[in-house]
Design a protein that fits this description.
The longest helix has 21 residues, at 2-22. The chain contains five helices and nine strands. The strands form two sheets. Strands 4-3-7-6-5-8-9 form a seven-stranded mixed beta sheet. Strands 1-2 form a two-stranded antiparallel ribbon. Mean pLDDT is 81; it is low at 7-22 and 28-44. The relative contact order is 0.20. A hairpin with a 5-residue loop joins strand 8 and strand 9. It is an alpha+beta fold.
């Protein structure tokens, strides 16, 4: 009986560590697609947000806190940083305060648009409470229909997409970076 309890305890501990190690990397469950035809068999490579650098920002919709629809055209002509995040994500919790500081420094020249992905049980209420609790002065936006996530091939959070005033994707960061690194990308925008 003692060995069984020890085994069970170790199993629970190992499982918990595995879940923590997975972190925020998966914003949704995705898989590679296999296409078969009469003459060939190919495996499609999963696209990533970084593949979009240099291209025009695709169109997508997202919602404000009061359920109004927004699109990238609402920010046309502005340098914009779109941020995919969730309130439960430890990496997002680390990065959002940094972005909030940078938002204050660049508010006259760059628009920050954090979009809550509403994945893994996140809700608008939880996300808005998180922003308020942490004193983060962002407007709240959500990707209720997953339009943002799909259009930009977002597979991990946090992900930042840097867009110039012409609507071209100039850079993508899909992991936590320090303030100085993010600021370098902002200055190059």
């Amino acid at each position: 009986m003692k060995n069984y309890k020890k085994f069970l305890t170790h199993s629970i501990l190992f499982g918990s560590l595995f879940v923590l190690a997975a972190g925020c990397q998966s914003a949704s469950s995705t898989s590679n697609t296999t296409t078969t035809s009469a003459t060939t068999t190919t495996t499609a490579k999963e696209k990533s947000t970084s593949d979009l650098i240099g291209q025009d920002l695709p169109n997508f919709t997202f919602e404000t806190a009061d359920a109004q629809q927004k699109t990238p055209t609402n920010f046309k002509g502005k340098k914009t940083v779109y941020v995919a995040w969730a309130s439960w994500c430890p990496d997002c919790q680390q990065e959002l305060p940094i972005l909030n500081e940078l938002r204050k420094d660049y508010q006259d020249t760059i628009e920050f648009v954090p979009i809550n992905l509403l994945v893994k049980g996140d809700t608008p209420e939880k996300a808005q409470a998180f922003l308020k609790e942490k004193g983060l002065a962002f407007n709240y936006y959500s990707d209720k229909e997953k339009s943002f996530q799909k259009a930009l091939e977002i597979h991990s959070i946090p992900t930042m997409i840097f867009v110039d005033q012409e609507g071209k994707i100039k850079n993508v960061i899909d992991e936590v970076k320090d303030k100085a690194t993010i600021e370098e990308v902002l200055k190059a925008l």
